[in-house]
Amino acid sequence: MRESVVRLIADHLVVSRRYFLGLGVAGAAALKSLPLHAEEVVSDDAIQKAIAKLEPWLTPTSDFRDVSRGKPIPHSLSEEKKAEVGMTRDTWKLEVLSDPDKPARVRKEFKKSDNTAFDFAALMELAKTKAVRFPKVMTCLNIGCPLGMGIWEGVPLREVLWLAEPTENLRRVFYYGYHNDEPSQMFRSSMPVGRILEDPFDLPPVILCYKLNGEWLSSERGGPVRVVVPEAYGFKSIKWLSHLYLSNVHGANDTYADANNDVDSPLKSFAATFDFPAVVKAGQPIPVTGYAQAGIASVSKVQVFIQSNAEKLPTGDKYFTKAPWKDATILPPSAEWGGGLPDGEIPEGTLGFDTTGQPKTWPMRLAKVHWATLLPGMPAGKYTLRCRTIDEQGHAQPMPRPFRKSGHAAIEQVTIDVQV
């Protein structure tokens, strides 16, 4: 087992144990279902498998799940080939162009053909005064769990956009990255120019990202430079960025639009279980831990309810709005952030954190958070446990956007077997 996972296990269990011990006698009884030390976890295959489903609050860069496209996947290329195609910091070039089909009026373009393309040294010059960093969970639109959680650092995209000196007819910006020089493999995303120029609702800016968790962005994570859109699903945060087009096109022209996806949907809030006893003795309290993704409307509550499988499901209530949901406890930040941060500390000036490196709000919007609850002992039988979030607007998961193609928000359900 990776050392980072062992540390995660120990840290998560310390926080969880603190919660359960606070519940008194029932909590102490529930602790019998949890390992007491990381060493015990290492020797328990069932716990290892359960814990391995979840990452620390900040994910080590090597532990991010990868859904990269391409044949071959660009980050698998040899170092020599990466240098040849501009996938290293020394050779990276960004072309900033007016859309030839729907042109915006600009005074300046940045092209490889005349050796004016924007390079990494120019980006670092902007970074001296314009760099920003913020936490964000990276999530695929069509996958039901996050790919990883990180602190992303870069230069606001608008700083480069303004260098092209646009004057009029600019409504949308679209962009793509290296794709093996095969047009059929191109993966493109786009944004209205207004979102790039402004940061509504206290959102961080859209950035040209070059660092993750304080380290240079690896090619596996989209380096040397990728786009990161704070409130969006991963398909907006294009890897191996190479081209940026300023356009007068009026609508989205993302590659994902061709697959019947909602390309303008921001992150949703949802909850999932982390660790629970699949088999428990009758009458014994049931400890459950999990995580929640705090979407654009964040999270105000996590709730659970457990139901005997012998009971009939209610009709006409597919989202269980009338079920006897009980509030779980949202756990506070852990002592260690994870992610391999230099010195283990949140970088100074990270948006959303104060001068001491502590979060200004918790849960943090567009991030993950852990939760825990202690269910009362149950009679023998099979049960289904469900969990959900309530966002800050009072919407219960999967509302207000229950549609699958606009991002995962389905209510998770797991089975618990209570035995005599």
Structure report:
The protein is α+β, with helices and mostly antiparallel strands. The protein has 2 domains: 64-259, Sulfite Oxidase, Chain A, domain 2 (Alpha-Beta Complex), CATH 3.90.420; 268-419, Immunoglobulin-like, CATH 2.60.40.650. The chain has helices spanning 3-21, 25-30, 38-42, 45-51, 79-85, 120-130, 157-163, 193-197, and strands spanning 93-98, 105-106, 118-119, 132-138, 148-156, 166-168, 172-177, 188-192, 207-212, 215-216, 226-228, 241-247, 270-275, 279-281, 286-294, 301-308, 326-327, 329-330, 367-375, 381-390, 412-419. The strands form 5 sheets. A 5-stranded mixed beta sheet has the order 3-1-12-7-8. Strands 4, 5, 9, 10 and 11 form a 5-stranded antiparallel beta sheet that branches. Strands 14-21-20-16-17 form a 5-stranded mixed beta sheet, with no helix packed on it. The two termini are 34 Å apart. 42% of the residues are buried.
